[in-house]
Amino acid sequence: MPKVLVADDDKNVVEMVQRALSDRGFTVVTATDGVEALELMEKDLPDLLILDIAMTRLDGYTIATRLRDDPKTSLLPVIIITARSQMQTFLHQHPNVKAFLEKPFNPLQLVEIAAGLVGGKKI
Cβ distance 65 to 80 under 8 Å? Predict the structure, then answer.
């Protein structure tokens, strides 16, 4: 089962994403802020990270940059979900960011993108 880490400080978004992915066979781990997300990744690197930009303690920009700059995580695929628009520049600076979904988003679209990014993993 592909393991996905969902990092967002909005409980409703976390629950919606967790339910959508779990229903389709993903193992989902959640974090409510950026610091918790990094701590969880240090313990067990997921197959995919779904990341909000605006979070407490550590924002998604900082996390994505740290992942990009670390050889151990530079290839970890990331999906950004955020209420902020105009992310094209950010996407070009972070090659591991594979998709951007603006809130509100369709959970089924997120599942399709996630499934495509974990490729050979069985879902």
Answer: no
Residue 47 near residue 3, CB atoms below 8 Å = yes
CATH of domain 3-103: 3.40.50.2300
Amino acid identity at 3: K
DSSP characters for 44-72?
S--SEEEEESS-SSS-HHHHHHHHHHSTT
pLDDT per position in the chain (123 positions), as tens?
A: 899 999 999 999 999 999 999 999 999 999 999 999 999 999 999 999 999 988 889 988 899 999 999 999 999 999 988 876 656 556 667 778 888 888 888 999 999 999 999 875 544
- Is residue 52 within 8 Å of residue 6, measured between CB atoms? no
Minimal CA–CA distance to 10: which of 104, 101, 78, 99? Answer: 104
